[in-house]
Amino acid sequence: MEPGQQKPFSEAVIAFHGRPLPEAAIPVGYAALIDAFELAVPAPIRLAAIGPRHKVYEADGWKLYTPRHRPDANLGGHLTFALRYEGLDLAVLKRLFLVTGPEPIAALVRAAPTGAYARRIWFLYEWLLDARLDLPDATQGSYAPVVDPGQQWAIDGTTSSRHRVKNNLPGTPAYCPLIFRTPLLEQLVARNLSDEARRLVAEVPADLLARTAAFLLRKDSRSSFQIEGEDPPQDRIQRWGHVIGEAGHRPIDRAELERLQRIVIGDARFVHLGLREQGGFVGEHDRLDGTPIPDHISARHQDLPALIDGLTAFDRSAAQSLDAVLAAAVLAFGFVYIHPFEDGNGRLHRYLIHHVLAERGFNPPGLVFPVSAVILDRIDDYRRVLEGYSRRLLPLIRRRPTDRGNVEVLNETADFYRYFDATPHAEFLFECVARTIDVDLPAETAFLRSYDSFKTQVKRMIDMPDRVLDLLYRFLRQNGGKLSKRAREKEFAALTDDEAAEIEAIYANL
């Protein structure tokens, strides 16, 4: 579509771009703008429409408003509705501004120079496009926040005197995913999980806490490989565990990410190290002709330096103001969608979670939350979260297969990785972190207390080395607290019946 052109805005429909509505309704806000201006962008997870009823309700990915909410059927009406009721979708807004060109946006501001929504739209145009509208600086109007903090998570930000707005966007034009406030996230943020974790470990003796921390670190390292379908030797697990334990000590930039990739890969004889120099995708190949069958298309290799710079800027600025878990979700999931390397992206994506939590002092000193282990337990949920955005991207990415079984992207896609709705990712990650505090940390501490008590009591009966005690305890755990016939006849044939019964009683009473 040529700049400034548009189709008429829709009247009532029963389906919108393949998405059925709960009932016949008029798409408004972002839905109306995407349709009228034929914007090639991922549609928001939830769209808005004007229904016939006099009540607001949500169903099937739509929020239906009443007839009295209906905006004027023009650019300004639908833009204002979107900002008022739907929050910011920067990918839609940037594409819209590119299609409208500057004059329609400038006209909106001239028509309402003191209006808060007009000034926010004006600021967003200049911020997203790095282009100045032919308008004098605003001189009236109270300073309005660019992000409505009642709808989406924002930072304190800075003021823009030209537009008389407060720029509280949690990022830069180079990288700024947004997160909606949801009841789940409000509840989890209010819990202050960091303080909960500190109170929990304060009750654990130092030696026991050190052993707990060591176990959880190994568990996380092993799980991160298992998520990728790998079963590496113990030395690789230990090396990566050491790297995770050092997370947060070094700032994230391109050089640091490339250093970490070299550690992740190990044997790089068949892997290109550093940023990709060709396309990338996640998926399979047709078994007959090798044609790529992508589940996710990575960012174009030409866009990688700028996108990594955007990630770096986010980590060093906005991430310091957002809640730590929210910041970790934005940084880590953005990285994995960009997929900057030929290999190693998955483990680095999860490393970035640890990086933010450690750098922000979220986890108690010396303790790593085994987030990868929880992700492994919830692998289907993890994949659904990842694929939720990837599936919306695929139809918008024009590509062709290469003779090396890869894909070449033919259109501009960088904004798809700069601006996305990270709400599902933040909810998932927060639930994982909460589980490590509610379940994994107490369970491992309780296990070690139980194990130590078992060893002490058995040693009072029998002089037994630790390795044999460990085997004895594992046999009992695996067999419901009873020594199997095989164990009694082989490894522990030297035990008398009375000794075996007393050991089983010790275990039962732990």
UniProtKB/TrEMBL annotation:
Residue numbers binding ATP: D343, G344, N345, G346, R347, L348, H349, R350
The keyword ATP-binding is assigned to this record: yes
Gene Ontology molecular function, alphabetical: ATP binding
Keywords: ATP-binding, Nucleotide-binding
Record-annotated Fido domain positions: 252-419
Entry annotation: catalytic residues: H339
UniProt-recorded name of the protein: Cell filamentation protein Fic
Organism the protein comes from: Nitrobacter vulgaris
Lineage per the UniProt record: Bacteria, Pseudomonadati, Pseudomonadota, Alphaproteobacteria, Hyphomicrobiales
